[in-house]
Amino acid sequence: MTNIASAGFGKPVLALDTSTSALCVAVVGEGRVLADDRSIVERSHSVLAVPMVKDVLAAAGVTPDKLGGIAVGCGPGSYTGVRIAVTIAKTLAWAWGVPLAGVSSLEALALGAAGDGGTEADSAPEWIVPLMDARRGQVYTARFASGGGWRRLAADGIRLMREWADELAEQAESQGERERPRRIRFVGDPSLHLASIEQLGERLNGRVRIEVCPTVMEGRSIAELGIRRLAAGEADDPHALVPNYTQLAEAEAKLLAGRQEG
């Protein structure tokens, strides 16, 4: 992704996300990434996140009073992981008195794979489908269109991958020749769901190009989405912002089921 919205935004923005195995932090300003860092050690997010925020701010030469806001990935994703970034972002936004913008981690994952920010007006449409494994054949996923402008086509949710592949095939087949995507790109972590993706390709039989492009979350993508919200005058209440868990954690689901049976 090369198109950073901060070119038209006054102050730098701190961005962070812990929804996946990648802890990522970035400071974006003046239309470019001023500093960023990333760690692929999921179980260490709670230990590394705050020191990484401090280090990235120092590397960017930005103090809290110079920030124009904080952008944070709100999930969906790892149940425990999502809470780490959201809690830190809420605390810092309140303590520093800066605007807070929660964004979709799935959209950031997709946007990071969309080339020039998904803004090419004259490109043939393509669909970008982010995937995060949710176990038991399920994925956290959504669908976006790049080319002719960036558009969301399906809400964030947890879906059975085989059913999601069938739905994507039906959606692609229902499009007219001009509207049909030239390709569908699966980004994020598709490694456990290749069989369903291959079946999708067989069903579309060459009419739509299928690509598998493993990608890792980038702080700059979180910042891009946050800046778009902040530039539009949108912000979240630090006390009210909650992660998008999409589903209850397994332990909570069992507890709720037990209460309902009782």
UniProtKB/TrEMBL annotation:
Whichever gene encodes this chain, its name is: txxer 892-ydiC
> What protein name does the entry list?
Uncharacterized protein YdiC
The Gcp-like domain is annotated at 40-156
